[in-house]
Design goal:
Layout lengths: L2 E5 L4 H12 L3 E6 L10 E4 L13 E7 L5 H10 L2 E8 L27 H16 L4 E4 L2 E3 L8 H9 L4 E4 L5 E2 L1 E3 H14 L5 E3 L6 E2 H11 L6 E4 L21 H6 L6 H14 L9 H14 L1
Parallel strand pairs: 1-2, 1-4, 2-3, 4-5, 5-6, 6-11, 7-10, 8-13
Antiparallel strand pairs: 9-12
Helix pairs in contact: 2-3, 4-6, 6-8
Length: 305
């Protein structure tokens, strides 16, 4: 049995990671402020990661899964506070790559500010640098858009809501913009690979090997709840993010290094069916955005006139 620490543990990725390793028989500790329900089978360390004091001083962990590190301060404060650990895995982001760089982005693509992600991306860059400086043996994973059960972000949930409401779907232009995803369970499976094999490479892009178009993705989301979309193309000069759940930004990660170690990933069809089943039972857990209100009250008048 491995003793592991998961930062967070109550929302989407961190919760999924905690429950995943509980099911695998690990002794799972979660670090959070205890403001939400805790994942079953875990041991809570109640603290703010920015005010840890001696809470971790005498703890020893085989693995640290740092899902909630966003800045260099986050990384340094945790490392300063923890007693000892064997392996550290940080979940970073594809936001570390500047939108102006050549695509697909590889792990060797120079990092820099991305105008779509701004400070979130530059903070992740600094967090990665702090971890590499403190622990060169740590692993850093850079996913694209994560999806799957427990996703409280209003992405696939927005499309499910449109489908269940019998709504037409307002498609940005021709709907051919590509989106790259990675199922949260595949993220955990890849961390299993790291634990088992300890590869020489320590930074990995992770994700599905191919993107899907907006049109394909929306169609799969509708099918996941037993519906078919009726598309309306939007060519009006309005910000896509106001009526759709992704920025007008297409990018692709090169995930060949991941594929060498883990060749298969979950199909989008299957993954979205799992997402839909979770959403139908947990709609109140999703952080909704006013996309539908914008469509009804601001976009539709533009389309009519």
């Amino acid at each position: 049995m491995k003793k592991v620490l998961v930062t967070g543990g109550t929302v989407f990725v961190s919760r999924y990671v905690a429950e995943y390793y509980v099911k695998k028989g690990f002794e799972v500790y979660v670090l959070n402020r205890n403001t939400r329900a805790q994942p079953a089978g875990t041991t809570l360390i109640e603290a703010d990661r920015h005010d840890l004091g001696d809470r971790l001083r005498h703890e020893q962990f085989d693995v640290v899964f740092d899902v909630t590190a966003y800045t260099a301060q986050d990384v340094n404060m945790l490392l300063d506070a923890i007693g000892s650990y064997g392996l550290y895995i940080m979940i970073s982001s594809s936001a570390v790559y500047p939108e102006s760089a050549a695509q697909p982005f590889s792990e060797e693509t120079p990092l820099g500010e991305n105008k779509f992600w701004g400070k979130y991306g530059t903070d992740k860059i600094e967090g990665e640098a702090a971890l590499v400086k403190r622990d060169p043996n740590a692993y850093i994973l850079r996913p694209p858009y994560l999806y799957g059960p427990m996703n409280n972000v209003y992405r696939e949930a927005f499309v499910f809501a449109c489908a269940m409401g019998g709504r037409k779907f307002y498609l940005p232009r021709d709907g051919e913009m590509g989106l790259q995803f990675f199922h949260v369970d595949d993220l955990c499976r890849f961390m299993d690979v790291i634990l088992a094999r300890r590869p020489d490479r320590h930074i990995f892009n992770v994700g599905n090997p191919s993107s899907v178009s907006i049109r394909e993705w929306v169609t799969m989301c509708y099918r996941a709840v037993g519906k078919q979309p009726d598309f309306v193309r939007v060519h009006q000069p309005v910000a896509q993010r106001n009526y759709f759940c992704f920025y007008d930004y297409e990018y692709e990660l090169d995930v060949r290094e991941q594929e060498r170690l883990m060749p298969k990933t979950r199909s989008m069809e299957d993954g979205l069916k799992e997402s839909a089943a979770w959403y139908l039972a947990n709609q109140g857990a999703v952080r909704e955005k006013p996309l539908i209100a914008y469509i009804d009250h601001q976009l539709l008048p533009l389309l009519i006139f």
